[in-house]
Amino acid sequence: MKHPSRTALFTCVCCVFGALFGSAAAAGDLGAAFHALPIDTRVAIQSELAEVDLYLADPDGDWSAATERAVLRSVETIALNSGDRVHPKLKTTQSMQTYLEALAEGSYSTYLRPGDYSAGSAFLRKIHLGG
Length: 131
What we know:
Elements lengths: L5 H30 L3 H13 L13 H17 L11 H13 L3 H4 L8 H9 L2
């Protein structure tokens, strides 16, 4: 049996550590993006997520593990319910804030609830075109 090269092992280790620490950093950035928003916007985000049973605490505008889970699950839910046509990206602080503000405004409401999403094509164009 041939053993993997050191380069291959090093690459695997880097990928694992990058995935672990990268997601931790992204979660921290998401919390910072959340706290940069006004309190009424933060409460609106949690209220929107509570309405669809993703956030299971009382909306208070504070960042917590429950808020983090709910926001991350909302991204998965939107992707799943849209057939992966809408998949919010949380790569930069700006994209995180944009997503959070859209949640607060109810822009993703259609995709957070199970149902028929064929009417969402205008919304899809808006999201993809950044308009």
